[in-house]
Amino acid sequence: MQLLRNYLFLFVILTTAACSYEGSVERIPLEKFFAAPLKTSFLVSPDGKFISYLKPENNRIHIYVETWDGKNTIQLTCDTNRSISNYFWASNNEILYLNTGPANKDAALVAVKIDGTNNRELLSTTDSRIRLITTSRVFDDHVLVALNKRDSTVFDAYRLNIQTGKLALVFKNPGNITKWYSDPVGKLRMAIASDGVNETLLYREQESQAFNSVITNNFKTTILPLGFSADNTCIYALSNQNRDKMALVELDCKTGKEHKTIYNHPDVDVSDATFSVNKGKLVYAGYETWTKERHYLDDSFKSIFNKLELLLPNTEIRLSSSDSAESKFIVRTYTDRNPGSFYRYTPSTNKLVKLSDVNPSLLIEDMAEMKPVSFKTRDSLIVNGYLTLPKGKNKENLPVVVIPHSSSESRNSWGYNSEVQFLANRGYAVFQVNFRGTKGYGKKFWTAGFKEWGGKMQDDITDGVRWLISEKIADPKRIAIYGYSFGGFSALHGLFSRPDLYQCGASYSGFTNLYTYLKDIPPYFRPYQQMYYETVGNPEKDSEYFRAVSPVFHTDKIKVPVLIAQGARDPRVNMNETNQFVKELKKKNVPVTYILKEDEAHYFRNIDNRLEFYRELEVFLDKNLSRK
After folding, report:
1. What is the pTM of this model?
2. Sheet holding 167-171, edge to edge
């Protein structure tokens, strides 16, 4: 049915729009697309009297607090060297936040009163990392944190007193625990252990007890705990055990036996669920077909969303925060053409007040629609994706930018995307493919991508592009491929493996050699090493395959212009190889634009560096995809 709907969509746009021309569209300044949100990450205080949010200034992100009515505001943080990466309300009058410096180093956990006083650094690291186990509630002035200061490859669990700064070891990681979970009163009761291939759910009734193994599965079978039931005898989890699609289930803590399936969808994975602490129950489950949707498990929350949909028609709605009584909410909205807004909402009065637009400099009518599409691959697999057509252009014979998503296990989603809208505004059709190996469509579809990073996953992208050509949407002489991280690898792979298909390609932090990508894995990823060997390949056993699919060994096959953007501090990409890759391309007279930032890691955090990259990308595409 979805495939039929998408063909009907293509029929409509090709028959009604191909013969008409909407006129030229004004080029929106690049800076407007990539402007930082004015305010973001809104949270309600537990008592509902205050709202907090993050606001950028001078390339740093700071915390602000204002009264619920918005009449009084105070800036809580003003660190000029580090930005806020995460924060939450510790109590009605105190906030905890985690900040990081360049390249994620020099992290610190800090507490501050909401009047700006008593700002104190509780925990700081230089050569280790901090992970928060407690992310929303503080019990008896203590939070749970995970640190890899003892051993860079594993994270031990600690309890931190936020008043005194005293740190106490709760559990020493034996070397195989990858995730920690606390119960509703802040006790460390559950964990996930992994040997790199098999995962074991661990549980204990009391913190004084040892962990017991509950259930063990190969990593292809996932049990993802979401939270404890009200009586602490069961957990709610997302699970694809004995099924293809992830479902929302209830499991016995001690035995791992599935008591019941709460909700499952026939076509896609259940992706999340919301638990109401106030009600002590799950209130809705989330899943994603071509848009994100909800299955309600509580009538009162269904009523809240129904009222909001009347107040905010034709927009996606998310409840992003609430007070402890769930009498006040922060509402987040967006569409494919609108970056969205934040509101404060009081259900009892049905009163909705806008707090901030994410990017008010952009007009909805200037943005392009993102539509779902489906096509059949050469081996008859149905693959889904999104197609964004530029406004003001005939809908045939368009220049196209193909954007593979950034992680082999993530997915493209419907909604506002700055890159997509920027490129569409420049006159390009933007094509995003959820190739095999993408998560969200079930276990079979995900595992179909194992050891296919340089094989069928790339074939799916190719088949999608050829489908666009067959539908006369794409001009076969004006197609580019561009991506970040894994998407960058896919772009470079496409350039050497399908030299007749692309006129140019761009890689932002894309790895050039799968062998070193896995050999140089950061120490904190090593517990997953065997899993990487099974999903990507083993550097020793699959060395010939890695050589065959790694762009660094195939510069002689690349004949079209290349743009490469890279951070010198990137822990996932071997800089010596990237530099050599660029040199080899230049030796072969391949036009190369190389953007190297010494102070950046895998992702460019400095807004000026990001803007420079997109300026270069704009020039690069304009030069290579213009009509000859």
Report:
1. 0.91
2. 130-132, 142-147, 156-161, 167-171
